[in-house]
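Example record for the data management plan.
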Amino acid sequence: MPHPILGLHHVTATVDEAQADLDFSERLLGLRLVKRTVNFDNHSVYHFYYGTAAGVPGTIWTTFPYRGWDVPPGRHGAGQVVATGLSVPAGALDVWRARFGAAGVCARDDAPRFGERSLTVRDPSGLVLELVEDPRDRRTPWTGGGVGTEAAIRGLHSVTLLLRTRAPTVELLTGLLGFEVVQETGARTRLAAGGDAPGHLVDLVEAPDAPAARNGLGTVHHVAFAIAGADEQLRLRTELLRLGRDVTEVRDRTYFQSIYFREPGGVLFEVATTAPGFTVDEPPDGLGQALRLPPWEEPHRAKIEATLPPIRRP
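Corresponding structural encoding:
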């Protein structure tokens, strides 16, 4: 029985330097920092969550800045999310092309894909981001970052997985997770969960001779999908175990609960609940302003803060 995935929840990447990441995501992309916390597996590393006003599932781009921890640059390749799409309104690419040019950031116009125009840039760590024009997107953007409503990012559009063979991944997505194939051309298959719309899309690109991916700086660590609640998540976990897949226990991420497993091509998937959300420990107008720690780490706040690199906010 399929377990209905609602759409994308977030995408998490490993980046280099914290300040450069903040400057790019907040100042240039105009995203809102909706949560400043720490990597729950390494409390000396920030975990930044960027999004729109409230950081609802489907709008969230998150990063681990790992400079100083001897993490080498990664390699983009098979078994990895190789591009993250961000949704912008129709006609917005001219604004973004000029904005990137003024900042000295190289932007490349892509050939139209499934009728969509897009612009590709790399962040300071080498991550590939695609700004995709999609007139179907009616989500309210965040405009506090200095980008007007006519061009501001609406949230995630899609993720692109590079795979040596796509058939087993298509089977998992359509069979167990409730996706549907909505478009296909050549080596690229597009699937959607919860509707064919921005924030719900996964592209699979088949490249039999692609080199194996290597995690590190400048690579996506995982893609997370949204599921309605904890009960549905537990049912999915039980089914994954029955199918022989290696899946983690449920992990408390404060703002959602998560399970993790790898799809057949090697990409790390997370399935995250939609609740309680980012306002569980901050008011909506104060999101991202202070360092938030999980409750069990509050007694160690002074020690944790002393190990984190200093940052400047806009």
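Summary line stored alongside the record: Residues 252 and 258 are 7 Å apart (CA to CA).
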